[in-house]
């Protein structure tokens, strides 16, 4: 799959997730090596109003979505792949006023499970806010998801 096709699929996938729309997340990059999403900083994602630190739930949403979408980078065709397990190790709080980048890649694909890892960071990928590992169940290409979810992600001409 070309990088352009992958980006288009990733953007369609993200646009189908209402909670990601509410958070105004966007796809920054997608290729065969992984995917990077951006969670724009806003007052709506602040967990501690005194410090401006981002709520852990917003970071969890970013990284679960990023890891789940990394499956698009390794599968030949779209499959619904729900989260089996997600572990997040928080390193330090996100700084107020700065967008957060989530990057993830798949490091192993089996018949039934896809294994991912990633980081969230602001200015420097070498100084992560958190690290994450996740596993996602492969349900196959015939599973469409609720309300024709899978069909909404396919290209119109496909």
Automatic annotation (TrEMBL):
PANTHER family, alphabetized: 1,4-DIHYDROXY-2-NAPHTHOYL-COA THIOESTERASE 1 (PTHR43240), BLR7284 PROTEIN (PTHR43240:SF7)
What keywords are assigned to this protein? Answer: Hydrolase
- Residue ranges occupied by any Thioesterase domain in the UniProt entry: 52-126
- What's the protein name? PaaI family thioesterase
Q: What Pfam families does the record point to? A: 4HBT (PF03061)
